Amino acid sequence: MNDTHPILARLYALKDADEAREVYDAWAADYDHDTIDDMGYVAPALAAEALAERISDGATVLDAGCGTGLVGAELAQRREVALDGMDLSPGMLERARAREVYRTLEIADLTRELAVVDDAYDAVICVGTLTGGHVGPGVLAEFVRITAPGGAIVATVHSHVWEDGGYRAEIERLAGEGLVSAEVWERPYHVREQMSCRLCVLTPQ
């Protein structure tokens, strides 16, 4: 992994939700420029394309860890959906709101149980959140809980935490218990930082 951008080292070493909120609030104004222009952040487009292929117009979708709304904007170009967003950072949510593609936006800590009823969504998408110093693999079971059977969960997992962070093991557990079927591919993430991710597609059973 080639962490050439100065903010990445701090991001991958976040200690708790309060620190994460502080860092992302401060970064919100420059986030799109830094990630897309400087880092070559392609994961939002790749994940949105994967989800668009698996849902129909009119689907209800949760963008979990929506940030400034990059994923929402990409998805809105491909499907007409009822899109809700959640993020820890009020600053990021303000940027997402300005895109005018979300039905609702709210503050949420993905390390805790979500205030969402079972089977509430047709799909969940989560990009850029399952990485070092951020949300752990336990959130995948929450995504399964709130996604209707036969729906779609599309998530990127940064390659450097795929094994050691327990994400591969958690997906294998969910599949082994018959809770999901799973497909996983290695895909680009930050092309200028030479970083990859696992693009994970889970189908709740």
UniProtKB/TrEMBL annotation:
Annotated ranges, domain Methyltransferase: 61-151
Gene3D superfamilies: Vaccinia Virus protein VP39
Pfam families found in the cross-reference section: Methyltransf_25
GO biological process: methylation
Keyword list, A-Z: Methyltransferase, Transferase
InterPro entries listed in its UniProt record: Methyltransf_25, Methyltransf_Superfamily, SAM-dependent_MTases_sf
Protein name, UniProt field: Class I SAM-dependent methyltransferase
Organism, scientific name: Aeromicrobium piscarium
Source lineage: Bacteria, Bacillati, Actinomycetota, Actinomycetes, Propionibacteriales
